[in-house]
Amino acid sequence: MSENIVDKVTQGDYKYGFVTDIETEIIPKGLNEDIVRLISQKKGEPEWLLEYRLKAYRHWCTLEMPKWAHLDIPEIDYQDIYYFAAPKSKPSPKSLDEVDPELLKTFDKLGIPLEEQKQLSGMAVDAVMDSVSVKTTYKENLAELGIIFCSFSEAVKDYPDLVKKYLGSAVSYADNFFAALNSAVFSDGSFVYIPKGVRCPMELSTYFRINAKNTGQFERTLIVADDDSYVSYLEGCTAPVRDESQLHAAIVELIAHDRAEIKYSTVQNWYPGDKDGKGGIYNFVTKRAICKGDSSKVSWTQVETGSAITWKYPSCVLQGDNSVGEFYSVAVTNNYQQADTGTKMIHLGKNTRSHIVSKGISAGHSQNSYRGLVKVSKNADGARNFSQCDSLLLGDKCGAHTFPYMDIKNDTAVVEHEATTSKINEDQIFYCNQRGISNEDAVGLIVNGYAKEVLNKLPMEFAVEAQKLLSVSLEGSVG
Amino acid sequence: MEIEQSYIDIYKEFAPTLKANSAEVMNRNRDEAFARFEALGFPTQKMENYRYTDVRSRFAVNYGMNLRQVSCPLSPSDLVKCNVPGISTHLFFVVNDTFLSCPSATLARDMEELMEKGVLWGSLKEHAEKYPELVARYYGKAADVENDGLVAFNAAFAQDGFFLYVPKNVVIEKPVQLINVMHANVDMMANSRNLIILEDGAQAKFLVCAHTMDQVNFLCNRVTEVFVGKGASYEQYKLEQTNYKMNNFGSLFVKQEADSHVIVNESTLHNGFTRNNIRVDLDGEHADTLLCGMAIADKEEHVDNTTFINHNVPNCQSRELYKYVADDSSVGVFAGRVLVKEGAQKTEAYQSCKNICLTKDAHIYSKPQLEIYADDVKCSHGATTGQMDDTALFYMRARGISEKEAKMLLMLAFMDDVIEKISVEALRSKIRLLVEKRFRGELSKCSGCEICKE
Prior knowledge:
The complex is a heterodimer.
Chain A: H1 2-10, E1 24-26, H2 33-42, H3 47-61, E2 85-87, H4 101-110, E3 123-129, E4 132-136, H5 139-144, E5 148-151, H6 152-158, H7 160-166, H8 177-185, E6 188-194, E7 203-209, E8 219-225, E9 230-238, E10 245-248, E11 251-256, E12 261-268, E13 280-291, E14 297-304, E15 309-312, E16 315-318, E17 324-333, E18 338-341, E19 344-347, E20 353-363, E21 367-376, E22 384-394, E23 399-408, E24 414-423, H9 426-434, H10 439-455, H11 460-473
Parallel strand pairs in A: 3-7, 6-8, 7-9, 8-11, 9-12, 10-13, 11-13, 12-14, 13-15, 13-16, 14-17, 15-18, 16-19, 17-20, 18-21, 19-21, 20-22, 21-23, 22-24
Antiparallel strand pairs in A: 1-2, 3-4, 5-6
Chain B: H1 2-20, H2 24-27, H3 30-40, E1 64-65, H4 76-79, E2 90-95, E3 98-100, H5 109-116, E4 120-123, H6 124-130, H7 132-138, H8 149-157, E5 162-166, E6 176-182, E7 188-198, E8 203-212, E9 218-228, E10 233-241, E11 246-256, E12 261-270, E13 273-282, E14 288-297, E15 302-311, E16 317-326, E17 331-340, E18 348-357, E19 363-372, E20 378-386, H9 390-398, H10 403-419, H11 425-440
Parallel strand pairs in B: 1-7, 2-6, 5-7, 6-8, 7-9, 8-10, 9-11, 10-12, 11-13, 12-14, 13-15, 14-16, 15-17, 16-18, 17-19, 18-20
Antiparallel strand pairs in B: 2-3, 4-5
């Protein structure tokens, strides 16, 4: 019985797998200093940014790809990737009419409220296709409040001081292999600045889509929340179905000043590869938040259902006293997907608190790992952490692993970690069956209930989408 | 490789001496093990399993090695006072890395009876010479020479140690006690090897104490292999109370057959540097394992317990409980890994690690890991690091108990979870007493023990 259901799950189709027929402008394959210069030149960047890229590139050349993760990563040929691909439309469209209609169709298919009439849904969207930001909505409305929400390249032109000040302050180019790569070749992304005392009235959102063949996507998101401000930011990702694997190595940096709060939600649904594990996106992302100010708060929420390989650890550096870091995650792996994800909570300030809830669901032949670090430094008096990571196994060919690290160097810290691994209880299924609920629905119910704690943390609009995603990813599911 | 090089040179020069003073069975794979060590070197902190513990530098001291196995001028009667009051045990001694044979044949009656039943115990070297087939069947079959430099090093240099063989369905009622004594007037290294074989249905309790007699640098690299047959029951209690200059490396490899039952309890009350590697392979269904341990560390002490439980077959159970109290600038490390292999359904594995950090300079690293490839399992782990409950302290202080006393009571209660798991009543109360003394700062002198006087 359950075998059939597993089969069904594994046959769930990826519905975002279309390719948009838009002319793209790409530069030669491969990576060298000239390519880095070319990217910088194409984007008309100032000298300091080119210097930054080159420093990152030179550092990258000295690094080797890390091997420690519980992942089976095929050899990646970094010279066989296009490092820049942009939809070839008129430069920086002023209004929607100027945007390529094909592109609009794409975003229509994705259900992204890019069009003006969708204003009612109250979401400001920055859409990034391949590597270039194509359209940012509601910029004007936000500008009235002093909020800056624009593509990264615009920010470099219009607000160079801000970018210069914060770029690389959370994730330095020397941080790791992929951070160095991204810092060398990043093409675009989103930039958000919330001024002092402003509460951003709407959800800010970015949609990322990889469209062109053989390209890597290297976007960069930088969010700065000044004193007493608040922002909620959403990120969604999709990619077309392709046979070859594609690399996605992004950087997200969040900086929260005194009493500021940043809520960052991700629904990651990159193409996961087909049911034999062919193709799919390699999602190697560095995400880090600095709770710089006192009483600041950063909350990561992620629903990870896509990507052939997911390898990321959204982290919080709790620098300010009384700052709070949160991490809520649902990671679903199916077929031959692999995930090694989790978080790092670095407690530096006094009375800092962190909360980690991670729910892993593995089905098919997939491997799902939680890896997390809670570090309490010597001066972080009164630090408090609670971590919970649960794994749910659907099927006997998959694996669920937990690798928590706790490094405690303070005598007043209280750190707790809890983990369980189990499968769906037959009693629970039986209970539902008895009440006329089919096996599939019962599993759906149970899985949704299992992930509820995390889904509840998502903003409304995303919660609905995430729930749908969960049921698509595990369609039918298992008994 | 400089540190390794000096040992490599020693081996190359003295291999014939090493071999001449050991048994043929132990020499069979000596060169291979040495080659493996040459390739691996000592573990470094770059290795995931040795992240928090710097093993290599511990070997940098210029230790003496007793390659000729010159016996020590000590008689068991000098040492015998270090016993556990209230229970009698079958007592054996290993001085440095050499088994101390009883000079007179004054074997106790019950010992003789057991030997008539076929129990073999004593020097590993002697037994390997007398019963080469038996020893060869087990020697080196569990130890992981391939991947661990410390084990390879031991296999290359170990010449003797303790051997215990319990035939089918024989039960040894009294605990078998092995006292490891380090005694030398120069810095000394010992590589000894224990081999314990319990055939189907056999039962034994094994008590290991570690002591130092001199204030010089000691390093002990010990590998113990334990084979537990079907339905057999094995309990091992290890107690470390030495001095700050002692470096103890213990690698324990346990292989369990179906329906067997194993308890391993390792208490580090006082030791300069401890690294325990425990690896348990559950090879038969319905076997169960309980690993527990405690560590009380102060000053610059370093205690690292790294455990690895392999659930190779369905229906096995494993439990782990570790508790640490770290004072001053000591370091406590717990890394536990449970691997549930594909198809090992109905596995139950529980892991728990609880720690108290007493000062800002004390560090606790915990890393409880689960790696699961089967779906019908119940696995959990919990880890906490914290300090004493303020309300509990206040409650006691309100009733006239001094702060110091109240703290001690709480710490004792904290450690009691581990002590409770000891099945030998007398040992339990003895350890309880020792823990209390340790917390009181009266250090580790076990009462009535001549050799631990510092």
